[in-house]
Specification:
The structure holds two protein chains of two kinds.
Chain A lengths: L8 H5 L7 E4 L9 H10 L4 E4 L9 H7 L3 E6 L8 H8 L4 E4 L2 H13 L4 E3 L13 E4 L2 E6 L4 E11 L5 E2 L8 H7 E11 L19 E4 L2
Parallel strand pairs in A: 1-2, 1-8, 2-3, 3-4, 8-10, 10-11
Antiparallel strand pairs in A: 5-7, 6-7, 8-9
Helix pairs in contact in A: 2-3, 3-4, 5-6
Chain B lengths: L5 H10 L6 E4 L18 E4 L3 E5 L20 E8 L2 H9 L5 E5 L2 E3 L4 E2 L15 H7 L2 E5 L11 E2 L12 E5 L3 E6 L2 E7 L6 H8 L3 E3 L4
Parallel strand pairs in B: 1-2, 1-5, 5-8, 6-9, 8-10, 12-13
Antiparallel strand pairs in B: 2-3, 3-4, 6-7, 10-11, 11-12
Helix pairs in contact in B: 2-3
Classes of the chains: A alpha/beta, B alpha/beta.
């Protein structure tokens, strides 16, 4: 019998080594898997490379992970926020490496990893500082920049409901990066609001099929 | 001369958005455009984080933390709205499915280059978000901004001095002084919107040459 439900976050994240690349879902607070991040902070894995759209807000979630000094490098599109003080401080001190990626390129690089694409040409950022040093090509009269996929060891995401096969549904804009991150990581760990019996999720409404999911934790 | 205020600029942009358009509004001044869409038009607003059909701001107490826009502000969903993941959302942008995006800017060049993500200061923390994708992908890029900097210099320039967001992508510029089209042969004045501003005075402030066709 397949059963992807894990009893505790600790068990679900127990094998994460130092230096892992970790995708963290969420756009601002919507879809941020705070339970999993809190557990990650408590467990102590360090030297992490984190992929998220932002670099944390205030003192919780991703900001707390950065503040705890566990992140070596971050790939994101928009680190600077009014309340991104943990990121700002470490970045300015040269203790945190930043790879700034346009938001759509970030999404597509994650998608490409999950879909087995080796690289792709995108028009985004052509002629700008963020394309400097990158291979470009003119295709059909338009200029494109070559971009490579972003693979991850783990994806930590939040979903609304899950069954024991790991099929997932989401809630509103909390979906954001979760489906593509789930596919791009070797081990996807999901925090859900509710777990349900197999068959209770309408197959027409499943957004992430369980093939992309390894471990599911229900919020208590 | 009486320049338009921010709400008047937004209202002027809204006048040019046709019924049925799929539109992405940037953060700041562009967001105000939503408040001025004529009631007889159905416009579908897109937000990068994965939603089409954004409605008005929720009433106090009715906010839902799972329903936000790209500025991370709480929003509502219109009947008929839809959610989707980030790769699909940017596929809509890059794939040319968004009819109009309205962006703020530090500078726009005579060739339609836009600079709006980085001041170029060495100690600034860079942040780009979806601006480069929108600049490269939307069918039409409109820019809204004040015409002049606080020092009185035109933000419409021969060449941008700030780091670029996109090249040759801006179609129309709406400022507190004028509406200007960017065309292959240069900048064309569409309309002076500041009360009491003459073409000669606008040209003096703008510096980059403006072509002027008499009103049809």
């Amino acid at each position: 019998m397949i059963n992807k439900f894990f009893a505790t976050c600790e068990a679900a994240l127990a094998d994460m080594p130092d230096g892992a690349t970790v995708m963290i879902g969420g756009f601002g607070g919507a879809g941020m898997p705070t339970l999993l991040i809190d557990c990650l902070i408590a467990r102590g894995a360090t030297g992490l490379t984190v992929v998220n759209n932002n670099a944390g807000n205030a003192d919780t979630g991703l900001a707390a992970l950065i503040g705890a000094g566990r992140v070596r490098k971050i790939l994101c599109s928009f680190p600077r926020q009014a309340d991104s003080w943990h990121f700002d401080k470490l970045y300015r001190a040269g203790k945190l490496e930043l790879e700034l990626v346009p938001q759509g390129t970030l999404a597509e690089r994650i998608r490409a990893a999950g879909a087995g694409i080796g690289a792709f040409f995108t028009p985004t950022a052509f002629g700008t500082r963020l394309a400097e040093g990158k291979e470009t090509r003119r295709i059909g009269g338009r200029d494109y920049v070559l971009e490579y996929p972003i693979h991850a060891d783990y994806a930590l995401i939040k979903a609304d409901r899950a069954d024991r096969w790991g099929n997932l549904t989401y809630r509103k804009t909390a979906r954001n990066f979760a489906p593509i991150m789930a596919a791009a990581a070797k081990c996807t760990v999901v925090q859900v609001r509710e777990t349900v019996e197999l068959g209770e999720l309408d197959p027409e409404t499943i957004v992430t099929p369980g093939i992309f999911v390894k471990r599911v934790i229900r919020l208590h | 001369m009486k320049p338009l205020n921010r709400n008047q600029i937004a209202a002027r942009v809204a006048r040019d958005i046709p019924n049925g358009a799929y539109v992405n509004l940037g953060i700041g001044l562009p967001t105000l455009v939503a408040n001025h869409i004529p009631k007889d038009r159905e416009i579908i607003l897109h937000s990068e984080n994965g939603v089409l059909g954004i409605g008005p701001k929720p009433a106090p107490g009715e906010e839902d933390e799972d329903l936000i826009d790209a500025g991370k502000s709480p929003v509502t969903l219109l009947t008929g709205g839809a959610f989707f993941h980030h790769a699909d959302s940017f596929g809509m942008i890059r794939g040319g499915h968004i009819d109009i995006c309205v962006l703020g800017a530090f500078q726009v060049s005579a060739a339609g280059d836009i600079a709006n993500w980085h001041t170029g200061e060495p100690d600034a923390i860079p942040a780009v978000g979806g601006a480069m994708d929108l600049a490269a992908g939307a069918k039409q890029v409109f820019v809204t901004m004040e015409h002049l900097t606080k020092q009185g210099e035109s933000k419409i320039v021969e060449r941008c001095s700030y780091p670029l967001t996109g090249v040759r992508c801006v179609k129309r510029i709406y400022t507190d002084l004028a509406v200007i089209d960017v065309r292959p042969d240069g900048l064309h004045l569409v309309e002076i919107v500041a009360e009491g501003l003459s073409f000669d005075e606008l040209q003096r402030l703008n510096r980059v040459p403006l072509k002027f066709r008499a009103a049809a």
